[in-house]
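FW: tagging you since you asked about this chain on Friday. Here's the raw sequence from the shared folder, copied in full. Didn't touch anything.
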Amino acid sequence: MQPVSAIQAQPYAGISPDETIEAAVRKLSHENVACLLVEKDGQLVGVFSDRDILNKAALEYDHVKDQPIWQVMNADPVFVYDTDSAAAALSVMAVSGFRHVPVLNLEKKLVGIVSPQRVCRFLREHSQE
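HL: got it, structure written out here
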């Protein structure tokens, strides 16, 4: 019954909603991550992922690359609280179909992200106990 906070949620790659799609794509590539947590004043306002590029921007990239990412990001992301159980995070990932789930504290401030790799590491460590 470990909380989500027991899963390594840091570091995470964040970006402002006003950054361009091109800047976001470059950041995804540079940081070698699948998604960026879109934040404003420490609050989660969306998620921009490799799927958003493929589904919403790839075919028209030259025409949309200078637009802000808030136009194509998921503005209603599924998230978990750091006090939720680790099992709840796994359930959210399985049910929602999202591989990466933002983690918020009880004040709704962004504190990190859980990913398949981090969950696997957590499970390996706790299965040996």
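FW: The chain has a mean pLDDT of 93.
HL: agreed, and The radius of gyration is 15 Å.
FW: great, closing this out.
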